[in-house]
Design a protein that fits this description.
This protein is mainly beta and 499 residues long. Strands 2-8-7-4-5 form a 5-stranded mixed beta sheet, with no helix packed on it. It has a 4-stranded antiparallel beta sheet with strand order 9-40-39-38, with no helix packed on it. A 4-stranded antiparallel beta sheet has the order 10-11-12-13, with no helix packed on it. The termini are far apart.
C-alpha cells in the first residue's frame, strides 16, 4: 500500500515538472520581440533596447543596421532589458534598423528606428546656434544646394525658423504662425495671433510664440489649437524653453518666466526697457539684453539679478553661452565676451557698425554679422579676428553653424554658406527681399525666410547624395556577431536623448 504522504509528494513533483516543462516550451516557442526607449533620435544619441522571447541564458547580439553594437544576456525567462547602443555619428537621416539576434541561431527580430535631428528654437537649445548632428551637408557638397520648395505667406517673414519632427514652424508679418511639412512645404496648419508673430520655440509637442498684439501663445504642435495664452506683448524676443519653463522678453520691459504646461507666471523682472533679444539659459542662469544697451544675468529659478553690464548701444543681439563664457553684440559696434558666472571682462572686438546679429559659437570660434556688411569669425578665447566676409548689405541675420559650414543671411537678399575655417563663399541664393532671419540647417536641408514673404527650403539633388534614403532592411540571416564584444550591463535610466 502506497503511503499517502509519498503519493502527495509524487503528485507535487509531477505538477512542478509539468509546469516547468510548459514554461520551457513557451520560452522555446515564443516569438522574439524587442522594444526601444525611443523611436527617433539624432546621430550619436543613445538607444536602450529591451527584448523577450529568446532562449534562456543565451547571448543576444544587438545590431544597428549591420553593425554589432552590443551583446545582451537573456535571463532564464529569455528576456533582457535596457541594453544601450549608440546611434552611429555616420547614420544619415531616414529609416534604419535595430536587430537582435540570439547566438543560439534560431531567434532573431528587428524594429525600425528613424534618424533625425531637430532645431527647436532660435538658440537650438545648446545656446550656441550650432548643429553638432549634421552629417549630410558639408564644405564639399554644400555648393550643390538647390531649391526644393518655397511657401508664400501674406507678409514679410522676419522670424527665424524652428524644425521639429518633420515640421517647419515660423511667424509672419501677416499675423500668423505657420506649420509646414519640412519635406514638401505643404501647409499643415496656421494660427492667427492678431499681431506680428515672433520666432517660435517647440518643446514636448507645444509651439510657443509671441505676438506684437497682446498675448503670448502655447499651441498644439500637431494641430495649431491654442492650449493657453498669457497677456503680454512680445516683440522681437524669441522664447527659450528649458526644464519646463518658458523664458521670453516683452515690450513692457519685463523678462517673464512662465510654466510651460499651464502658462502660469513663475516670476518676472522689469528692466524698464524693451527686451529685444532671445534669452539664453545655461547652468541655472538666464542671459538677455535690452534696448537700453544693457545685458543682464538673472537666476533662472527666481529671477534674482546676478550681474549686468552697460554697453552704451541699443542691443538686439541675443547672448550665446559656451564653455563658461557669454558672448553678445551691441549697437556700439562691438562684440563682447564675459565670464558667464563672474561677469569678468575677457575681450571685445570692434566692427565697423552696430552688431544686431546674435553670435554662434563652434569649435573655439565666434561667428557674428555686423551692420558694416560683414560676417566675422573671432577666436573665442582671445577675440582676435580670424577672417571676415563682405556681403552686399547689412548683416542683421544670426549665423547657424553645422559640419564646417556657416549659414547666414544678409539684407542684400541673399542666403550664404561660408567655409567655417576660411570664410570662403561656398554657395549663395538670392531671394526677393532682405534675409533678416537666422537660417536653420538640419537633416541635410537648409531653411531660410525673406521679407519677400517666402520661406525657402534647399537640399541636395535627389540621388546625388544618400540623404533621406531609407537604409535597406538587413537580412537577419547575414548578420554576424562580433565575438570580441563583452556582455553589456543594463542601463538604469535613459540618457543621451536630444534636447
Amino acid at each position: 500500500m502506497i503511503d499517502p504522504r509519498e503519493r502527495s509528494q509524487s503528485i507535487r513533483l509531477l505538477t512542478f515538472l509539468s509546469v516547468a516543462c510548459l514554461l520551457l516550451c513557451r520560452i522555446a516557442g515564443a516569438t522574439p520581440s524587442i522594444t526601444l526607449s525611443k523611436k527617433t533620435g539624432p546621430p550619436t544619441s543613445q538607444i536602450l533596447v529591451s527584448g523577450r522571447g529568446f532562449k534562456s541564458n543565451v547571448g543576444v547580439d544587438i545590431f544597428f543596421d549591420t553593425r554589432d553594437e552590443a551583446v545582451a544576456l537573456a535571463n532564464s525567462a529569455g528576456s533582457f532589458s535596457q541594453v544601450a547602443i549608440p546611434t552611429p555619428a555616420s547614420a544619415l537621416p531616414g529609416d534604419h534598423w535595430v536587430s537582435a539576434v540570439g547566438r543560439s541561431g534560431d531567434k532573431a527580430t528587428q524594429v525600425r528606428f528613424e534618424v533625425h535631428a531637430n532645431w527647436t528654437e532660435f538658440h537650438r537649445r545648446n545656446m550656441q546656434r550650432r548643429n553638432p548632428y549634421e552629417n549630410v551637408l558639408n564644405v564639399h557638397n554644400v555648393g550643390r544646394l538647390q531649391l526644393t520648395w518655397s511657401y508664400t505667406t501674406g507678409g514679410a517673414v522676419w522670424s527665424s525658423l524652428a524644425v521639429a519632427n518633420g515640421v517647419v514652424y515660423f511667424g509672419s508679418y501677416d499675423d500668423k504662425v505657420y506649420a509646414l511639412n519640412a519635406s514638401t512645404g505643404a501647409l499643415v496648419w496656421s494660427y492667427d495671433t492678431g499681431g506680428f508673430a515672433s520666432s517660435p520655440a517647440v518643446a514636448n509637442g507645444v509651439v510657443y510664440v509671441g505676438s506684437f498684439a497682446t498675448s503670448f501663445y502655447a499651441l498644439n504642435a500637431s494641430t495649431g489649437a491654442m492650449l493657453w495664452s498669457y497677456p503680454v506683448s512680445v516683440g522681437d524676443s524669441p522664447p527659450t524653453v528649458v526644464n519646463g519653463v518658458v523664458y521670453v522678453g516683452s515690450n513692457d520691459g519685463n523678462l517673464y518666466a512662465l510654466n510651460a504646461s499651464t502658462g502660469a507666471k513663475r516670476w518676472n523682472w522689469n528692466t524698464g526697457f524693451g527686451v529685444l533679444s532671445s534669452p539664453a539659459v545655461a547652468n541655472g542662469v538666464v542671459y538677455f539684453s535690452t534696448s537700453s544697451g544693457t545685458v543682464y544675468a538673472l537666476d533662472a529659478s527666481t529671477g534674482a539679478p546676478l550681474w549686468s553690464y552697460y554697453t552704451a548701444g541699443e542691443m538686439r543681439s541675443s547672448p550665446a553661452v559656451a564653455n563658461g563664457v557669454v558672448y553678445f553684440g551691441s549697437g556700439n559696434s562691438k562684440v563682447y565676451a564675459f565670464g558667464a558666472m563672474s561677469r569678468a571682462y575677457l575681450w571685445s572686438y570692434t566692427t565697423g557698425f552696430q552688431v544686431d546679429s546674435s553670435p554662434a559659437v563652434a569649435n573655439g570660434v565666434v561667428y557674428v554679422g555686423s551692420g558694416d556688411y560683414k560676417v566675422y569669425a573671432l577666436n573665442a578665447r582671445t577675440g582676435a579676428k580670424l577672417w571676415s566676409y563682405r556681403t552686399g548689405s547689412f548683416v542683421w541675420s544670426s549665423p547657424a553653424v553645422a559640419n564646417g559650414v556657416v549659414y547666414i543671411g544678409s539684407s542684400d537678399g541673399k542666403v550664404y554658406a561660408l567655409n567655417a575655417r576660411t570664410g570662403a563663399k561656398l554657395w549663395s541664393y538670392t531671394t526677393g527681399g532682405g534675409v533678416y532671419c537666422s537660417p536653420v540647417v538640419v537633416n541635410g536641408a537648409l531653411y531660410a525666410a525673406s521679407t519677400d514673404g517666402n520661406v525657402y527650403a534647399f537640399g541636395l539633388k535627389q540621388g546625388a547624395e544618400p540623404t533621406g534614403v531609407p537604409f535597406k532592411r538587413p537580412d537577419l540571416k547575414i548578420l554576424r556577431p562580433d565575438l570580441t564584444l563583452n556582455l553589456s550591463k543594463p542601463v538604469a535610466t535613459p540618457s543621451g536623448a536630444e534636447l
